[in-house]
Structure formats: structure tokens, C-alpha cells
Amino acid sequence: MPPADRYAVFGHPIAHSKSPLIHALFAEQTGERLTYAAQDVPPEVFETEARNFFAGGGKGLNCTVPLKELAWKIADRRSQRAERSRAVNTLALRPDGTIYGDNTDGVGLVRDLTINLQLPLKDLRILLLGAGGASRGVIGPLLEHGPARLVIANRTPEKAIRLAEEFGDLGPIKGSGFSDLSRESFDLVLNATAASLSGEVPELPENILRPGGCCYDLAYGSEPTPFVLWGLDAGAAVSVDGLGMLVEQAAEAFLIWRGIRPATRPVIDILKNREHRFWR
Ligand code: ATR
Q: Which atom of ligand 1 lies nearest, measured to the CA of 129?
């Protein structure tokens, strides 16, 4: 029997990645023969390590923080959504030896919201916190679903304004600072800032969330993130972290590599149960 096809996730740090487990569960479920490893790769050696991986027979890579912009650069061809977000989280070796780059983060988020959480985005007022790489990856896919408006708010307002201008052709989008939001209220508030990593929540005006609205943290952890707790406190009917997005973006990557989309619900349930997660 030929050796199993090899895949990996590169990131820095990477020790706590759930991707190897997710892809192992996908492989088991679909009967695909493959291995998937996690490798700590600092940005300085990313290009060398990625090229070595593919030269050595590797078939596909996931790239996570802080490597997504570098992964965008080494792709020979990219999907439209990757081109637009200027970040790549999935690299695939094509039969002709070229490297294809895609970004499945945005579609992963939208699938978790619309399918798993049953929240149609059409006509919603959406607030997206943060104007870094995580926001850039999800703006296009969110706008595709026809929200009433998408406001990007950032600690450094100019970055949000610039990002809104860049995506202005795709739908009703505006950039602002946190304090300029005081007269608005939103149906859905998404946290794409790195504030959770330091245990913080962005400073938001009161009543920013419509009563019974939804809060979603693109980050995830084994405990509810500070933003998830903030959402519950602010009266959200649903306040969840990004575990579902993580599994959905992985399923889209698996589809690109193997041509088959695994069922995500059972995998989300397994991950939740492993960590005794009660809040989703
Ligand atoms: P990523 O790729 O994860 O998005 P990034 O590009 O470094 O990382 O962006 C981090 C985002 O989190 C930025 O929007 C940043 O705000 P600034 O542009 O003003 O720096 C935001 N951020 C980080 N820490 C924050 C905090 N404590 N409160 C609010 N926003 C924070």
C-alpha cells in the first residue's frame, strides 16, 4: 500500500492546536487515508519549511497565526476570496506541482452562524470588532449574505475606516472607532480583536447589543472567553466562541484537499464534550 497522504498545520505557537484532532476525526469519518501533524514554524523560516514540506511529498498545509499573509505570498494561484482577504489559511499541492491558496475562515464563520446556530444574516445589523487579519478574512463572506449593514469598529479607528473603504464595493460597510458607536445597536456583534488573548474585552458603549441579539468570538478556548461572558452579561440570547468556525474552516480545507466535505456537527460535539463545554 502506498504511504498515506501527508498534511500539516504550521503556526507559531502551535502546541494547543485542535486541527490534528479535527482532521483525524474527518479522516476516520470519510475513510480517507491521510496523516495530519502540527508543526511550530516561526515566520522567518516559513517559506523554506513550506517548500520543503511540498518537495518532500506533502499534499496540503493549513497556516495559522502569524503565517497567513506569508502563505498568501507563496501561493502560485489563489481563490478569489483569498485574493481579496490577502491571507491564506489553506495551501494545496496541485497535480502540476503548483501551490494553490485559499482562505476558508470566512466561509467557516458564516456556516457556523447560519447553519449550526441557525442565524440568517440577511438584513441583520452586524458589528465587527477589530481591523486586523482576522477581520479581513471574514468581511467578504459576511457581506455576501446581505446584512442591512456591517460596521467595523477598531481601537485605532483609521484602520477600520481604511478596511471599510477597501471592501466598500461589496456591500453596506462603514468603519469607526469604539466610542463613535454610542447611538447604534446591533443584532450580531463579532469579536475579531486580539483582546481575548490578553483576557480583555474592547471598551464598548452600553446597549450596543440589541436585547436578545447574538455575540460571537472568533477566538476560542477551553473556558468561555471574556467576550463570550461579556455577551451573556449584555443580554445576548446566544453568546459563543469560535469552536464551530474552527471546525467549519477545517471541513472546507478538507474539501479542497480530498474532494469530500465531512459532516461537522459530530466533530463539534466531540470537541465540546472533551472539554465539558456547557455554554454553547
Ligand atoms: P489578527 O490577525 O488576529 O487580526 P492583528 O492583525 O494583529 O491580529 O489585529 C489585532 C486586532 O485586535 C486589531 O484590530 C487590534 O486593534 P488595533 O488595530 O487598534 O491595534 C485589536 N486589539 C488587540 N488588542 C486589543 C485590545 N486590548 N482592545 C481592543 N482591540 C485590541
A: 14
